Amino acid sequence: MNPTELQHSLRECFPEADAIPEECRIHAPIHQRSILLNGQMQIWKGQTRPVFSPVRTRAADGTLTPVELGSFPVTGIEEADAAIEAACKAYDNGRGTWPAMSVAERIACVENFTNQLVTRRAEIVNLIMWEIGKSLADSQKEFDRTIDYIKATVAELKQLDNSNSRFQIVDGTIAQIRRSPLGIVLCLGPYNYPMNETFCTLIPALIMGNAVLFKPPRFGVLLYNPMLEAFRSAFPAGAINIVYGQGSVVVPHIMASGKVNVLALIGTSKVADGLKKAHPKTNRLRAVLGLEAKNAAIILPDADIELTVRECLAGSLSFNGQRCTALKMILVHQSIAEQFLRRFSDELAKLKMGMPWEKGVMITPLPEMGKVAYMNECIEDAVAKGAKVLNAGGGTSVETMFYPAVLFPVTEGMKLYREEQFGPVVPVAPFEDLEEALQYVITSDHGQQVSVFGKDPDLIARLVDPLVNQVGRVNINCQCQRSPDVFPFVGRKDSAEGTLSVHDALRSFSIRTMVAAKQTEATKKLLDEIVLGNKSNFLNTRFIL
Questions:
Q1: Could you say which of 99, 151, 301, 349 would form a disulfide bridge with 333 (CB–CB 3.0 to 4.6 Å)?
Q2: pLDDT digits (tens, 9 = 90+) for 187-219
Q3: 109 and 256 together in one domain
Q4: Whether the Cβ atoms of residue 26 and residue 32 lie closer than 8 Å to each other
Q5: Do residues 330 and 427 lie in contact, with contact meaning Cβ atoms separated by under 8 Å?
Q6: What is the CA radius of gyration of the chain?
């Protein structure tokens, strides 16, 4: 297919308005005017921002028009201050209703919230699909995986609390050790997994008794509208407060207040550094960060080509490559580079392009025009410095539809060699010596994951041992990924701070605290009266079923 034909095909991907399936339509724009602050839905009468989908509708003459999804409040400093005040009031230095609740009571609140979410599944899934262009199947998977994550978090917390429901006696000291909340948590989620990645920090932060300030991602704001009532009704006033407005204005202001105890951010290291510096007492600030990555695939001479192509294709282009765990650099041994690239390009050509609701679709509209411009910039830079676009039509675009491009050979000095492209451009670099591939990972600013493809146990072992000291996860003969959620999700260098998983997240948003006393008859009697009389939520031996 020549570029003109491909452009026509990309344009034809966009539907006429009446061709959109009835069950997937946005029948009326959602003009959100409610803000959840201090347990109340406050009506906003100020400035709003329109929300447009990456999906366009096509007129008879071929004109493309963005689909308006609705609008949301653009709040400012005054509202940010109100959110801070509400969170501080709810936490009340650890004496508020929410942090002082028993673990069992907090679990019941989270379960109530989850049950309400499930009843809005179709609506939330549809908004994920329309707001960020994620396929319907993947949007459904994101919702379901989030619900599973919440349930697994509840189960893990029960196990954690039950294991702490006993006293220890060491060297004449009686003690009970439990986990306590840290205070005020600011949660900032990403647009590519606007529900799942956000809830992977928000839910553990909440369930451990912290008061939360939450700002929805830039793309993926409206999908939280159906959740507002669930947040309001399931949790005590002020336990969660939602902040809107321009992130570059309100978020640094919140951090500068010094009231935030934990920054939970899925974003970039540049943003994280700036927000940390805005806090007046960084020694008091704990950070749980999922940052950028430039995950590499290292393809050894004896790699199974078909398996490797399949995994690298999915790894680099699922959801248009807009995943932090995506393969963003492919290093292939020179001896098999031609064979790999030919098969990779052949399989790429079979990928289905289209709208998110189409079955089997993989290439969908990108959330913003700026991303299309950046992809083109990366391609132009690489071509100007000696790389070639290997697949026919690679880099062709029509508005938000961008056809993936495979570039080879990508070398040091090109944008694509080090920068995280976060989109459907696949840079490939050859290597002769194993040390070259290893040095790429060692010299990278990022250290999230790497994938190694090959059959020789000696070669694999020679790579695994040094790589585990460079990245958080080494994948053998499979693409990089976060799941299963019970496994630690971590990164080195500029890729992360802290550890996320069902197990680790609960610990990231809490601190071990103990009550201790000398082992005397008077103390034992006192503790018995407190425990047997159910006088304390901390000092108890209750078991949560």
A1: 301
A2: 999 999 999 999 999 999 999 999 999 999 999
A3: yes
A4: no
A5: yes
A6: 25
